[in-house]
Amino acid sequence: MSRYFNDWLRTFKASISSYNYYVDFEKVYGNVDRIKIELNVLNSLIGSKSIENDFRKLLSEYPQVLKCVPILLAVRSREIYAIDGDGEYLFDFIRPNYSVDDYITFMRKTGLFDLISNHVINNLVDYVMGVEVGLDSNGRKNRGGHLMENLVEDYLIKFGLKRNTDYFKEMYLTDIEKKWGLDLSGISNQGKATKRFDFVVCNNNTVYAIETNFYSSGGSKLNETARSYKTIALEAKEIKGFAFVWFTDGQGWKSARHNLEETFDVLDNIYCIADLENGVLNDLFN
Question: What pLDDT was estimated at residue 140?
Fold first, then answer.
């Protein structure tokens, strides 16, 4: 069945954010649980009228509470650098490298004593939970890089394929050649180039090498990707028992539509999310 590029491009989505894209709560809970005891010890300082003296006493009995301090400032590192007119410091909160007075100065100057003693917060465990949620939101970029890959894998599983039996994830050209006895030197430039595909499916005596990506915004990378995949598409046509498949989507392609269209014209197996929703895997693998 013939397809029209403009109609196909119109179906591209603005976002594919999954439910667990926003916050990895399991990671958040785990990070908090690792220091929950120490945080509860520090809770004894909340509302203190003499917090510097109380902090000094606390450190003498429970020095391990220091390891909680960086996360109170939304810092994951065990060390924190600070400089002002009084000097330059690199505080270590796992193996203390300064005097208790220096750490008290740190707590005062960073505002942590004020935060704790003036009832701005009521529970440090809850406070750190919020900090962890905020820090984890910075990981969305990394999670976003796998969204399309995860989505395609969901459809492969729904189709009835089993991982490491019917489909394989992140396989290099050399591994594909060894497993199925194919000569992919045309794609690898006689073995000089290393290429890894997101998924590989072997079905009906054909090995399908699959790439996936999603671009919500434009950029030079899109043109490079389209040109690269066009080359692979043309080379793959010369290899018996091998097929190249590309699942892509995203509004970013509208700024690189011409290069994408060139690949669309030579690659029969180029699909978007709407194609997956409409059952394209049945046509591809049956």
Answer: 73
R_g of the chain, CA atoms, integer Å: 27
Asked if residues 193 and 203 have their Cβ atoms less than 8 Å apart, the reply is no
In a domain, 185, yes or no: yes
Task: Say what the pTM is.
Answer: 0.70
- The residues pairing with 213 across neighbouring beta strands, listed in sequence order, are 248
Same-domain status, 276 and 241: yes
Same domain for 183 and 114, yes or no, is: no
pLDDT tier for residue 214 given thresholds of 50, 70 and 90: very high
Cβ proximity of 81 and 89 under 8 Å? yes
Strand partners, 91: 80
Give dist(CA 94, CA 72) in Å, integer: 15
User: Which CATH number belongs to the domain containing residue 248 in this structure?
Assistant: 3.40.1350
Per-residue pLDDT reduced to its tens digit, 141-161:
666 568 899 999 999 999 999
* DSSP string across 30-72: HHHHTTHHHHHHHGGGTT-SSHHHHHHHHHHH-GGGGGGHHHH
Q: Examine the domain organization and report whether 88 and 204 are in the same domain.
A: no
Q: Would you say 169 and 153 are in contact if contact means Cβ atoms under 8 Å apart?
A: yes
pLDDT of 178 strictly over 90: yes
Q: How far apart are CA 61 and CA 59, in angstroms?
A: 5
Instruction: Say if residue 190 is in the same domain as residue 112.
Output: no
CA distance 152 to 232: 20
Domain of 85 in residue numbering reads as 35-138
Are residues 281 and 156 part of one domain? yes
The whole-angstrom separation of Cα 18 and Cα 27 is 17
Task: For residues 270 and 86, give the distance between their C-alpha atoms in angstroms, rounded to a whole number.
Answer: 63
Span 77-100, pLDDT tens digits: 999 999 999 999 999 999 999 999
pLDDT at 92: 97
List beta partners, residue 212.
Answer: 247
Token look-up 């510097």 returns: 52
